[in-house]
Design brief:
single chain, 172 residues, globular
């Protein structure tokens, strides 16, 4: 058996847990998330030489992982579950004075996030829902930190508009 290239092994070791975390949130199933991510890494392995010649191997890999995760959801005839599980399990909902109001608000936020363009959606989910830093989000997606900040700003504006909230002065 041929040994995997060291750079591929390092990439796999560093990014697989992050990708699984995102895919599990999307698929709401750890086994399916691992399967989708492992299929993505298999695709990356077979194209590894080409991946390394791209402008951003991380962006290329993110695209493959995203595609495989969506494909897995479709194959299992599931709707994407990004954020909805988290919304129902929040501490705020469990301790809310008005649980029905909190649930309605959570569902509105969920629908608004799902309606965002792909890149904005991914930044919001990685940074705000999964808690990755700006640097980590940029690294995972293969974009600049400035790109994450800018994308997050536009996404927040869209979310405020979709939810009928007034825009507040942003501080960063």
């Amino acid at each position: 058996m041929t040994e995997l290239p060291a750079d591929y092994r390092a990439f796999h070791q560093l990014y697989r847990p992050r990708y699984i975390q995102w895919a599990e949130l999307y698929l709401a199933n750890r086994h399916d998330a691992e399967e989708a991510v492992d299929q993505a890494f298999e695709d990356l392995y077979f194209a590894w030489t080409d991946v390394l010649t791209t402008e951003s191997p991380n962006a290329y890999a993110w695209s493959v992982v995203r595609h495989r995760t969506i494909e897995c959801a479709r194959a299992r005839r599931r709707r994407p579950t990004v954020i909805d599980t988290a919304a129902f399990e929040t501490t705020a909902l469990r301790h809310a004075v008005d649980p029905v109001g909190e649930l309605e608000q959570s569902l509105s936020v969920y629908e608004a996030i799902c309606a965002l363009p792909e890149r904005q959606h991914d930044v919001i989910v990685l940074h705000y829902c999964l808690g990755h830093s700006i640097r980590e989000t940029a690294d995972i997606m293969g974009i600049t930190q400035g790109g994450v900040r800018s994308t997050a700003r536009f996404a927040r504006h869209r979310l405020r508009d979709a939810l009928g909230l007034e825009r507040e002065e942003e501080h960063r």
